[in-house]
Amino acid sequence: QVRLAESGGGSVQTGGSLRLSCAASTYSANTVCMGWFRRLPGREREVVATIHSYGRTTYVDSVRGRFTISRDNAKNTVYLQMNSLNTEDTGMYYCAAGDSYPPGYCNPLGFRYWGQGTQVTVSS
């Protein structure tokens, strides 16, 4: 069982920045892949960014160039630096963890452990 604890959400104005953090209770095959998902108002949950323990990252097109995912394997922690935020980024952000399949890749469908979520609100 993997427990995930998020922090760092909040309110910011358009163009501002926030940094989300997520600490996993353990490092195992179930945390080889870590990622951030979000649920925007009126929309289905979507993957924002993923990162493999080897460092391979993926981003949804709408955040590429503005958001950066990183991880500290020694601390079992993943981060999401969010810059140039806009109102369309407002939503609930969830940390997630899972195994890697195929090997070396993080499939959004492979994430099985979830944090409670942290709210990000961007105002104009």
Shape assignment: globular
Q: Which structural class do the helices and strands define? A: mainly beta
Give the helix tally: 0
Helix and strand element order:
EEEEEEEEEEE
Strand content: over 45%
Give the distance, in angstroms, between the N- and C-terminal Cα atoms. 40 Å
Helix share, percent:
under 10%
Question: What's the number of extended β-strand segments?
Answer: 11
Mean pLDDT: 95
Gyration radius over CA: 13 Å
Largest sheet: 7 strands, mixed
Low-confidence stretches: none
Any overview of this molecule?
There is one protein chain. The protein is mainly beta and 124 residues long. Helices cover 0% and strands 51% of the residues. It is built from no helices and 11 strands. It has strands spanning 4-7, 10-13, 18-24, 33-39, 45-52, 57-59, 67-72, 77-82, 91-98, 111-114, 118-123. Strands 2, 4, 5, 6, 9, 10 and 11 form a 7-stranded mixed beta sheet that branches. The protein has a 4-stranded antiparallel beta sheet with strand order 1-3-8-7, with no helix packed on it. β7 and β8 form a beta hairpin. It is globular. The relative contact order is 0.32. The model has no long low-confidence stretch (mean pLDDT 95).
Secondary-structure blueprint of this entry?
Elements: E1 4-7, E2 10-13, E3 18-24, E4 33-39, E5 45-52, E6 57-59, E7 67-72, E8 77-82, E9 91-98, E10 111-114, E11 118-123
Parallel strand pairs: 2-11
Antiparallel strand pairs: 1-3, 3-8, 4-5, 4-9, 5-6, 7-8, 9-10, 9-11
